[in-house]
Amino acid sequence: MRGGSKTLVVALAALLIAVGLAACGGGDSSSSTPAGTEQGTAEGTSSQNRSEKGGGESSPGSGGEGQSGNSSAYTPKHHHDSGGGSTQFKVKGGDNSVQEFGEEADSAERDAAAVALHGFLDARAEGNWAAACEFVARSVVVGLEKLSAHAKGGDLSCAGILEKLTNPIALTAMKAEAKKANVGSLRTEGGNAFIIYTGTGGTFLAMPMANEGGDWKVSSLAGTPLN
Predict the structure, then answer these.
(1) Environment class of 68 (CB within 10 Å of its CB; exposed 0-12, middle 13-18, buried 19+)
(2) Which residue range forms the structural domain that includes residue 151?
(3) CA distance 195 to 18
(4) How far is it, in rounded angstroms, from Cα 198 to Cα 80?
(5) Residue 133, exposed/middle/buried by CB under 10 A (0-12, 13-18, 19+)?
(6) How many domains, the chain?
(7) For each of the chain's 227 residues, which pLDDT tens digit applies?
(8) Rounded Cα distance, 209 and 222, in Å
């Protein structure tokens, strides 16, 4: 990874630790949170997905039925992404380390990653946390479980933790963001990648991704603005 990308990833990890500890009632900052994780809301105009995939294998700790949702009840939505590559997202005079990370993936690989991004955003917007966890990288699930180690009672699965971390007031904005997300680029290097997409208000966002057994998963809880 280039230096700029490492800086971005470390910042994302630190942000998730801060939000996670606040939501879970405190803990120790030495928790092993995976690189490229964070909490927030940002996304946003949509993608040509092969949405027949409901989400692949369940991530460890992903919730099933109950207040956190039922992943089997989730129906993937169809999106139409514009593509076009990362050049369109470069910011003059800005830090373009994400836009120049690795290599530009072909359209088939980009669409496969877009399935995971849209699946996560759509399920989260519906408040179906169990389904959202199906699209989350295992390393992030493990990090969430460690963050919740000091919490007492309640659902401590991936789904339960996501529900606790999300302010219900934000769900309306999440629905708008999920509807607007328009994927334009996937920059890959080995099993790691950044999917770059346009969000609400024309914001450019980057979502770290991880390839697990041939399936792309989001390795953060929200996109990070690039402009």
Answers:
(1) buried
(2) 3-225
(3) 24
(4) 12
(5) buried
(6) 1
(7) 444 444 343 333 433 433 332 333 333 333 333 333 333 333 333 333 333 333 333 333 333 333 466 776 788 888 999 999 999 999 999 999 999 999 999 999 999 999 999 999 999 999 999 999 999 999 999 988 887 777 666 677 899 989 988 888 988 889 999 999 999 999 999 999 999 999 999 999 999 999 999 999 999 999 999 98
(8) 11
Please tell me the distance from the alpha carbon of residue 108 to that of residue 112, in angstroms, as a whole number. Answer: 6
Task: Please tell me the distance from the alpha carbon of residue 149 to that of residue 210, in angstroms, as a whole number.
Answer: 24
CB burial of residue 109 (10 Å; 0-12, 13-18, 19+): middle
Spell out where the chain has E strands: 103-104, 182-189, 192-198, 204-212, 215-218, 224-225
pTM: 0.70
Task: Record the tokens describing residue 158, joined without a space.
Answer: 């991936």
| Residues 144, 198: Cα–Cα separation, whole Å | 27
**Pair of tokens at residue 153:** 């009672």
Tokens of 62: 């992903």
Contact status, residue 195 vs residue 206, Cβ threshold 8 Å:
yes
Question: Cβ distance 137 to 223 under 8 Å?
Answer: no
Contact between 33 and 12 (Cβ < 8 Å): no
